[in-house]
Amino acid sequence: MAYHYVVTAQKPTAVTACITGNFTSPTDLNLLVAKVSRLEMYLVTPEGLRPMKEVGLYGRVAKMKLFRPP
Q1: For site-directed labelling of 25, which of 16, 31, 53, 70 has its Cα 20 to 30 A away?
Q2: Helix or strand or coil: residue 43?
Q3: Per residue in 11-57, pLDDT tens?
Q4: What is the pTM of this model?
């Protein structure tokens, strides 16, 4: 009996959505980038973007919106 194991060797590159906000602290400006099935968080600094977190998702990001609880 034969089994097939299929994986993707390359991370997604097409950006489907992005948003900015203060996610890690009230003073840090962050950029969240959704790439099909991956969510990436960057810290915005005067020197440029610094990667902070990268998370794989089971599904696709259709829309992102900033939410601040009252």
Answers
A1: 16
A2: strand
A3: 888 899 999 999 999 999 999 999 988 999 999 999 999 999 999 98
A4: 0.78
